[in-house]
Write a structure and sequence with these properties.
six-stranded mixed beta sheet; 18% strand; three-stranded antiparallel beta sheet; globular; 319 residues
Length: 319
């Protein structure tokens, strides 16, 4: 019994071969949202892939509420043994820490394990809008100060911050209507109650296909394969619009390094597989392989980016 306890204790110490017997029991992956949508898709897909690769069950647990804060706190307080993981994304580890007081530190309380992928945002307008590009939209907004209406998925969300980034760069006024989620905002855009939005590509694609919304520009460093005729913001004259709705896997702080390396290797192997790439492509998610260190630096840069913008534009949920 003493020997068995000693072996188990050593397995939890970084650098002592913790990954050799990992995982010897089911692993939980928290998804900070209700079932359905990109977060849930990523969580369930990676649970399936990791389970197959490591020969153990990876079980998804949906934990919505608090904009992802509930799931984040659960993981931050969990034992750092590799058996409690989470889908960390641009909300929990990017825009939320930048725009509100959260009960966790998105950097110090977590171990970055692996980036999975991301989907760009795009600026769309109602088809009745007599504009075909960003220049036309800006000219119209400046000619009619404070009359352009925009639908946001909520204060401090990625789509809201991208819109504020654009308004600041272009220098025009608009009426921003905040909704409880991107779904209700779409309802009003499709009915013409609001004129513009900056949703994620995956959410927008069905409405673009049936021509109920018109795309003007997409975030990212290059045009997206699903919308080859839609220019990037940079092509349209606005630099720095490379923000995406990203998803990755994180765990509690101080996880054993060899477990982190093993999980990262399997994540990168999975997102390189043609079948998974095709599945993600259907949801406009592009694989973004990174090492744990690269992912950690990416998270820090995201928080810094959106914190700077939120301060410049006076965006805060705590006021």
């Amino acid at each position: 019994m003493i020997l068995r306890a000693l072996i188990f204790s050593l397995a939890l110490i970084p650098g002592t071969g913790a990954a050799q017997g990992y995982p010897f029991r089911p692993v939980k992956i928290l998804v900070p949202a209700q079932p359905g949508g990109g977060l849930d898709l990523v969580g369930r897909t990676m649970a399936d892939q990791l389970g197959r690769a490591l020969g153990q069950s990876f079980v998804v647990e949906n934990s919505g509420g608090g904009g992802g804060s509930i799931a984040s706190m659960t993981v931050a307080r969990a034992a750092p043994d590799g058996y409690t993981l989470m889908v960390g994304y641009v909300g929990t580890h990017g825009t939320n820490p930048a725009t509100r007081k959260v009960n966790y530190d998105a950097v110090r309380d977590f171990t970055p394990i692996g980036m999975v992928g991301g989907t760009p945002n795009l600026l769309i307008v109602h088809p009745s809008m007599p504009v075909q590009d960003l220049k036309g939209l800006v000219d119209r907004a400046k000619a009619n100060p404070g009359r352009l209406t925009y639908g946001s998925g909520g204060i401090g969300t990625l789509n809201h911050l991208i819109w504020e980034q654009f308004r600041g760069a272009a220098g025009f006024e608009a009426v921003t209507v905040h909704y409880r989620g991107i779904g209700p905002a779409f309802i009003d855009l499709l009915s013409g109650q609001v004129e513009a939005m900056t949703p994620g590509l995956a959410a927008a694609m069905p409405h673009l296909r049936n021509r109920k919304a018109r795309p003007l520009a997409v975030t990212g460093l290059q045009r997206h394969p699903l919308l080859p005729d839609v220019p990037t913001f940079e092509e349209s004259g606005y630099k720095g619009f490379d923000g995406v709705q990203w998803y990755g896997i994180v765990g509690p702080a101080k996880m054993p390094e060899d477990i982190v390396r093993r999980l990262n290797a399997e994540i990168n192997k999975a997102i390189a597989a043609p079948a998974l790439r095709e599945r993600f492509a259907g949801e406009a998610i592009d694989p973004m392989p990174m090492s744990p260190a690269e992912f950690g630096r990416f998270i820090q840069s995201e928080i810094a980016r959106w914190t700077k913008l939120a301060r410049e534009r006076g965006i805060s949920l705590d006021e």
